[in-house]
Amino acid sequence: METPSDRRIAHPRVALSAPIYEVRPHVRPIGAKSCIGAQLTVEIGRILVFGCDQRNGARLLRPWGVRGTMTSSDAQAGPPLPAIEPAQAVEVIIGFIRSQMEQTGFSRLVVGLSGGVDSATVAFLAARAIGADNLLAVRMPYRTSSEASETDALRVVEALGCRTDRVDITPMVDPMLALISGDDDSSLNVRRGNVMARQRMIVLYDRSAAFDALVIGTSNKTEALLGYGTLHGDMAAALAPIGDLYKTQLRAVAGALGVPSEVIAKPPSADLWPGQTDEGELGRSYDSLDRTLFALVDRRWTVDRCVAAGLPRDLVEWVAQRVARMEFKRQVPPVAKLSLRTPGFDHLYPRRRPGSGR
Amino acid sequence: MEYRIALAQVAPRLADLDANLGIASDAVRRAAAQSAVLTVLPELALSGYLLQDLVPEVAIRSDDPRLLAIGRDAPGMLVAVGFVEETDDHRYCNSAALVRDGQLIGLHRKVYLPTYGLFDEGRFTRPGDRIRTHDAGPPVGRIGLSVCEDFWHASVAMVQALDGADLLVNVAAGPSRAPGSSAGLAAIDGWHKMQDTYALLGTVPLAFCNRVGNEEGLTFWGGSRLLAADGSTVVQAPLWEEALVVGTLETDDLRMQRYGLPLLADERLELVRRELDRIIAERAGLDADGDSE
Predict the structure, then answer these.
(1) CA B19 to chain centre
(2) What was the pLDDT predicted at A20?
(3) In this prediction, does ipTM exceed 0.90?
């Protein structure tokens, strides 16, 4: 039997304190008979993970066969994860999407489908709100994009029966990338990633004009607060249905919607370069990020209080600083005030009013 | 004597006065068909909620014929309805009117304008400065009107109960948040607790009408309720969905409740006033006679 230490999950995304919504009967606690101590039932979205106490850690056996252990420090990650009642959230978001369509006068949506859980969830929500026939899911691989991304995107398309297009962005992006050079690999990666994200935005908005549709956004709350997105790239959209859902909440919502479990379970990645993962790039697990953000933002806790509750100080300070540093990404650019009435200051209107739709 | 109240949990259209007058009239017609004598429509039912600088464009006066005409084709029907009011001196208020047969029976200007969190009402509208009750005659009697946030201040409901209200009517536009979080739709739980408490402690029936629908990113949650004078729920509308629910109250229940539980009669108003005067003076740094310390 493997020892806990050599099977530690690289990106523990497991919440011991997360509520259990549903036990799926076909999921079997693999290897539970070899456990010492009590068996724990843990959940990622709707995917249940079974584990058991083993002195200095809990051994996890994921239902899809990936094994690992979670150390006690992961299990005691401090303040709770943000909870969600998926059915209510789905109902609110679907009402929101329908209302936006009605107010703007559009009946169709375009989504960039990456194969990841965010865009898959948005595609499911959109299809539920306006019908799969009115949804165009655009797959936009680059030559280095992983094959799994395409496979998973197609799983979503198949599950929904929505329209789909495949647009290879390689010939659009490569000439631009050829002009990008520099010594700093990290900076180069970011610049290349931004070019790809913005090229996808161009494709999406072009398709939206052809399909007479709005572009529906796929940014979640964790990304938005951390500024982990490309301005005018993946952040560009007409409406943001999952913008108030943390990544860990989103997984629960994805499960309730019936998003394929392979899509929910895989490590989140922008797939901008081979091997990239969100958690690798951010250097933190979504579990720890969401606990920290929920405490700092939603509960208005101070850094010290988060630390006292069990979160590592370096994590909390990094998150707090990043939220502040990325504020600009969440707002429209500041306008130099000159006149008596200026948009954003004292010219304040709802986006739609009678006659402003089409 | 029994009488019926309809709670019209509608979804007003933002800044579309004509459409909303139609929605209101339609609701009154349906309420009349179910023998209601009072139809309650939500806060800002004639204008929608997230108006911002559209406030002056949708504001009407409290004697506006379009307002007074609501329910005109249902003789004797009382209608409580929220709208943006422009006063004689051009204050813009979040008001609720009580109309019947083309007459204005009562008017309440929202006293507490939430300007915190997701709310920014104090920026665009001005607060009212009266907490009154309005005599609608039998069978309903005196009505204490209030608008949404007013109910988050127990003083409003209690003043109206002490002022002889036979029915409290709160019209609301409550946006939902935190579905299923550890706060558990916190606002809805809070609303229900407060309503139960006001009916119980005020020994007064209570009609709460909350809108539904979406504006920008907000979702209004509905869940309108009618409570009897003992705090029990007579009828409750569903969450999120448009609905018109009708419930029956019995005037005798109010009489008997107040005999069995004479809380209002026992209330020591002079004691309360003395203590309030003291608190007001102390907050202002004055002694109780109003002189500076």
Answers:
(1) 22
(2) 32
(3) no
Chain B within 8 Å of A352 (Cβ-Cβ)? yes
- Whether residue A21 lies within 8 A of chain B, CB to CB, comes out as no
CA atoms within 13 A on the CB side of A285: 20
Give the closest-approach CA distance of B180 to chain A in angstroms.
4
Q: Which one of A20, A96, A99, A301 would you mutate to disrupt binding with B, by most B Cβ within 10 Å of its Cβ?
A: A99
Q: Which domain holds residue A310?
A: 278-327
Identify which of A151, A64, A164 has the alpha carbon closest to the alpha carbon of residue A115.
Answer: A151
By C-alpha distance, the chain A residue nearest B50 is A350
CATH classification at residue A142: 3.40.50.620
Closest to B176 (Cβ–Cβ): which among A83, A92, A100? A92
* Domains of chain B, earliest start first: 2-261 (3.60.110.10), 263-293 (no CATH)
Q: Which residues pair with A251 in a beta bridge?
A: none
Examine the domain organization and report whether A196 and A219 are in the same domain: yes
Cα A73 to chain center, whole Å? 24
Q: What is the mean pLDDT of each run of 10 residues along chain A (358 residues)?
A: 37 37 34 33 38 34 35 57 90 95 95 97 98 98 94 97 98 95 84 96 98 98 96 97 96 96 91 84 92 95 96 97 96 94 94 81
Number of domains in chain A: 3
CB contact under 8 A, A350 and B15: yes
Nearest CB neighbour to A96, from listed B16, B181, B217: B217
Q: Any idea which residue has 């009212």 for tokens?
A: B128
